[in-house]
Amino acid sequence: MNEPEQPSSPDEGYRDDELTQPLSLGPLRPDEQSPRPPADAAQADEPRYDGPRSEAPPAGAPQPGVVQPGASWLPPSSPPAGPPDPWGGYPPPGTQPMPTEPPAHRASAGPRARVSGWVWPVLAAVALVVGVLGGVAGSVAYDELSDSDAPGTVSGGLDDVDTVSLPPLSAEQEGSVAAVAEQVLPSTVQIIASLDGEEGGATGSGFVLDKQGHIITNNHVVESAAKEDGKIQIVDQEGNRYDASVVGRSPVYDLAVLFAEDADELPPASLGRSQRLRVGEGVVAIGSPLGLSSTVTAGIVSSLNRPVTTGESSDDSSYINAVQTDAAINPGNSGGPLVDLRGQVVGVNSAIATNGGGTISGQAGNIGVGFAIPVEQVVVTADQILKTGESSYPVIGAQVQTGVRDGSGARIDKVNDGSPAADAGLEEGDVIVEVDGDRVTDGIGLIVAIRTHQPGETIEFTYERDGEERSAQVELGAEQG
């Protein structure tokens, strides 16, 4: 196999001393949900200028209106300065665009020119054609979302869906767990999926990605249902249930994207940046631990860039460059959002450290050490899945030891012929100690460091061979998963 994550032998694998586990909840049943309440009145659209248009300004005057840039799915580095313009660049009602120079006076008040009779039928025909074309474009966009080979995919990925990236809380509200919960709970869902053929055998959590009805969760929550074409439902804060299907999964990153066509009115969660986090900063975990829906717990960021692996065997291992938190996380929290105190998602809760204890479900509970997938990785993987229904991850085409954790580096056990590692001159026995200048202490750290990059990128490896330190430029390959 052309994967770096496999140990050189079963005896050297990382599974013997594994301390983390995925959080999906097995046969526990969630509480009965209340029936769907009557639909509320539709919310008013954003304010816009629908009043009478002003006469065109004279020649040389600026035209009203501004060009709006295309929406980006990447979170901004900082909120835009000043409040947004509620009129979208148009003058508010009751105002006129102001010319830069006074209009010239008319020389005389002669009779007005008449419009030829043939102009009106032509204008009517043009308007009809434009209307028809607009309708066709709208139907094409809808078909692109709903009738593709993989239901729920969109050709443009995150650029073609409506996500949110501005913080929902003001500076005055920031820091309040109650305010965070009020904002994010409506965007958090419980997930009920079949497990080994048993309907509703697995429960987890997720959050709303966009206004089109896409949901983010962990792969291990829906993996069994996806393989067996089992039933998957999402349950919102009000107890309403929606049927969902899997758009695509990434076992490597333990992420999945679901599509619930009837859930397009659920509000999307705001996507933040884990790179802004500082150790000690407050965070909130939201989800359905032990089947208890809409549960909120709070804590701090305990560590950043923590290399961990989850899964019960080397075949289903996921390697995470995790955000570590002491916010209470339990089985059933899997896939739910980890949120900063601005109300933005900074990670996806995925694993907990264990001490060998167990619960009624056979899984250990919270001991104050939980791990979340950084939101930056979620964005990259979700974009890939939305485009094609699949995701890819970077590889170097070498096998490394993952059971040795003495801090000396990552030892290469095998280099595949024709692989990126071979092309870069790496050999069996080389010990990788740095990736792009960042220290690597073991095989898990190397795999995590590689997977924070994208296929096609070139990264620098610093390694030791025969007591001598060397460097190599490695162009990353790609595999699906």
Task: Outline the fold blueprint.
Blueprint: E1 20-22, H1 119-146, H2 177-184, E2 188-195, E3 198-208, E4 214-217, H3 219-228, E5 232-235, E6 241-250, E7 255-259, E8 270-271, E9 282-287, E10 295-310, E11 318-325, E12 337-340, E13 344-353, E14 370-374, H4 375-388, E15 392-395, E16 398-400, E17 410-415, H5 420-423, E18 431-435, E19 438-439, H6 443-451, E20 458-465, E21 468-475, E22 477-480
Parallel strand pairs: 8-13
Antiparallel strand pairs: 1-13, 2-3, 2-5, 3-4, 4-7, 5-6, 6-7, 9-10, 9-12, 10-11, 11-14, 12-13, 13-14, 15-22, 16-17, 17-18, 18-19, 18-20, 20-21
Summarize the structure.
This protein has 481 residues and is an alpha+beta fold. It is 15% helix and 28% strand.
Question: How would you characterize this protein structure?
Answer:
The protein has 481 residues and is an alpha+beta fold. Among the domains are: 15-27 and 271-387, Trypsin-like serine proteases (Thrombin, subunit H), CATH 2.40.10; 186-263, Beta Barrel (Thrombin, subunit H), CATH 2.40.10.10; 392-480, PDZ domain (Pdz3 Domain). The protein is 15% helix and 28% strand. The chain contains six helices and 22 strands. The chain has helices spanning 119-146, 177-184, 219-228, 375-388, 420-423, 443-451, and strands at 20-22, 188-195, 198-208, 214-217, 232-235, 241-250, 255-259, 270-271, 282-287, 295-310, 318-325, 337-340, 344-353, 370-374, 392-395, 398-400, 410-415, 431-435, 438-439, 458-465, 468-475, 477-480. Strands 9-10-11-14-13-12 form a six-stranded antiparallel β-barrel. It has a six-stranded antiparallel β-barrel with strand order 2-3-4-7-6-5. Strands 16, 17, 18, 19, 20 and 21 form a six-stranded antiparallel β-sheet that branches. The protein is globular. The chain starts with 19 loop residues before the first strand and ends with a strand.
